[in-house]
Amino acid sequence: MDREELAAWLHLTLTPGIGNERARKLLAAFGPPQRILGQPLTALTAHVGAQAAAAVRGAPPGLAEQIEATVQWLSQSDGPGTRRQVLTLGDADYPAALLDIEDPPLMLYLMGHEAAIEPGRGIAMVGSRNPTPQGVLNARQFAQALVEAGLCVVSGLARGIDGAAHEGALAAAQPGRLATIAVVGTGLDRVYPKAHLALARAIVAHGLILSEYPMGTPPLAAHFPQRNRLIAGLSQGTLVVEAALQSGSLITARMAAEQGREVFAIPGSIHSPQSRGCHALIRQGAKLVESAADVLEELQPAAVAATAGPGFSADAGVPMTRLQSGVLDAMGFDPVGLDALVARTGMSTAALQGALLELELAGQLARLGAGLFQRIART
């Protein structure tokens, strides 16, 4: 779009008190924003009321600076095969899936690979910002398997499960297709959290970062539940990897269900707070999944044969001694302390610590806080 058109859209969306609903009423009544801004006050009042109409006729605070910031952002390049783009409601390239949700954004800012968002390929993956080591591994391995099967992982670039899902998806990136989409709650001229700067750059090369928020928008708490509707809306289904009962991931799952999308959940230990949200979803009707094939049989039945296989394998093909195997069997899959393992195995503390160190170095277990260990299963 040219500068004049961009300025009109920014004027409409940044006007205080308008919001998406009133803006859509004006668009339906008068057409593009340039026409809306040229309407007499009486005509605008008939559709949105006197106060909102008066606000539309005035210039929103900071409009000129926002126009300039957006134009400058659009003029920058992230390298060959990438794009920076602003899409508005009604554009031919506007994601069709978002037109079906209750509150589609008026404007979308996109940055990343030039490949198009293909309808029917998205699978949302969300979960805890403070996952267990097992949860991180599950997120990476499920994401990689799902992208290898032809899906595109949609998540929120947050710490924890989101980041692991993006990483797993990028590991399976295919030429000419989006491996992952990160829907963020800030303007695209900043990265949040800052620890994910390198990950964001990798997504730009092989995926897409998307936001409905204008340049300079900070990471406000209210924006993250709001952006969850876009994560769910871009996807055929939502997979919750780990989540506490009060997790924002459950908001995404609820939005997915309300939008008529599938909801999946990975079960975990009954003793882990990070599993209780998933267990609650399963009780409410979410599909329990143990492998990527369980997701694919709902979304892409033809792809199941290519990914079907055993669920979890503790050793994942890594040779182990009989002693190490016995320690893993004694651990189970719940977090366990050293004293409990001594009692279960009958080993001396020194011998057990040696075996645990070897298993940790082999990637078979992780050390948690408070002196606990947890066996790591691999898909």
Description:
It is elongated, with a radius of gyration of 24 Å. Helix 1 crosses helix 6. The chain has three domains: 72 residues, Orthogonal Bundle (DNA polymerase, domain 1), CATH 1.10.150; 195 residues, Rossmann fold; 54 residues, Winged helix-like DNA-binding domain superfamily/Winged helix DNA-binding domain (Arc Repressor Mutant, subunit A). The chain has 379 residues and is α/β, with parallel strands linked by helices. The protein has a nine-stranded mixed beta sheet, with helices on both faces.
Fold topology:
Layout: H1 3-14, H2 19-30, H3 33-37, H4 41-48, H5 50-57, H6 63-75, E1 82-88, E2 107-113, E3 122-126, H7 133-148, E4 152-155, H8 161-171, E5 180-183, H9 197-206, E6 208-211, H10 223-233, E7 237-240, H11 249-258, E8 262-265, H12 276-283, E9 287-288, H13 292-299, H14 304-307, H15 322-331, E10 336-337, H16 338-345, H17 349-361, E11 365-367, E12 372-375
Parallel strand pairs: 3-4, 3-7, 4-5, 5-6, 7-8, 8-9
Antiparallel strand pairs: 1-2, 2-6, 10-12, 11-12
Rounded radius of gyration (Å):
24 Å
CATH class of the largest domain: Alpha Beta
What's the CATH topology label of the largest domain?
Rossmann fold
Series of secondary-structure elements, N-terminal to C-terminal: HHHHHHEEEHEHEHEHEHEHEHHHEHHEE
Runs with pLDDT <50, length 5+?
Answer: 305-318
